[in-house]
Design brief:
Strand content: 5-15%
Distance between the termini: 6 Å
Order of helices and strands: EHEHHHEHEHEEHEH
Strand order of the largest sheet: 2-3-1-4-7
Bound molecules: BIS(adenosine)-5'-pentaphosphate, zinc ion
Number of helices: 8
Shape: globular
Largest sheet: 5 strands, parallel
Length: 213
């Protein structure tokens, strides 16, 4: 199964993609996670993209296209979470898939209104060590502000401040929303109301995806 996950920042793409990845046994490729890991390691890529990510802007298409091509070339099933984010990236993915003789099965759109997003993201915390995602309102760690997996102090992402979140939302509307229209012509689009509880969203999503197994 090959899936694309779309949705505004904080819609729950990462949260849901992890569940689908576990249950359906398919690889979860989050371009945001890959970039943040590169920043944490201080690699060449990380140094190039740190200031862009902190401002909430998009990393150049050429970098993203190469990175994703490399990741998917040997995979038979995957979820792409956070890519493609521009029409240029979508065209590049199209070319790559043609070369590899692969096809997307479905495009998932998790939709959530802007005010709910700002609320959710302001209470998101992440573990800087293992990447686990928490929420101080809906998904607290068991022990104060320490990661359940590894005991590290959880922190707020640099790009999760309100003014940056609003900027990311604007960029989503301007650059990424049109990409969904690009897919509407030839692909099945599954639209999910992401403002419900995590469990309800998961249930709805699993029901919709069952037919692609
Ligand atoms: P990326 O990491 O992809 O950021 P994003 O798209 O803004 O998405 P988020 O990670 O903020 O949110 P999410 O939808 O995964 O939500 P989550 O599950 O965590 O990208 C970051 C940056 O990298 C970009 O700004 C850009 O600079 C760069 N980048 C990445 N890909 C790129 C590309 N292709 N091209 C160019 N640049 C690129 O949930 C959010 C919070 O809400 C959590 O606390 C969670 O616990 C909680 N939550 C989740 N679901 C629910 C629910 N149903 N109810 C209540 N709370 C919930
Ligand atoms: Zn951890």
């Amino acid at each position: 199964m090959k899936l694309l996950f779309f949705g505004p920042p904080g819609a729950g793409k990462g949260t849901q993609a992890k569940k689908v990845s576990e249950i359906f046994k398919i690889e979860h490729i989050s371009t945001g996670d890959i970039l943040r890991e590169a920043v944490n390691k201080g690699s060449e890529l990380g140094k190039k993209v740190k200031t862009i990510i902190d401002k909430g802007e998009l990393v150049p298409d050429e970098i993203m296209n190469e990175l994703v091509k490399e990741k998917i070339k040997d995979l038979d099933s995957f979820i792409l979470d956070g890519y493609p984010r521009t029409i240029e990236q979508a065209k590049s993915l199209d070319r790559t898939l043609k070369e590899l003789n692969k096809q997307i099965d479905a495009v998932v759109l998790i939709d959530v209104p802007e005010e709910e997003i700002v609320k959710r993201i302001s209470s998101r915390r992440v573990c800087p060590n293992c990447g686990k995602v928490y929420n101080l309102i809906t998904l607290k760690p068991k022990n104060d502000e320490l990661c359940d997996n590894c005991g590290t102090n959880i922190i707020q992402r640099n790009d999760d401040r309100e003014e940056i979140v609003r900027e990311r939302y604007k960029i989503y509307q301007r650059n990424t929303y049109p990409v969904i229209e690009f897919y509407r012509k030839n692909n099945t689009i599954i639209t999910i109301d992401g403002s419900k509880d995590v469990e309800e969203v998961t249930k709805e999503l699993f029901n919709m995806l069952r037919r692609f197994r």
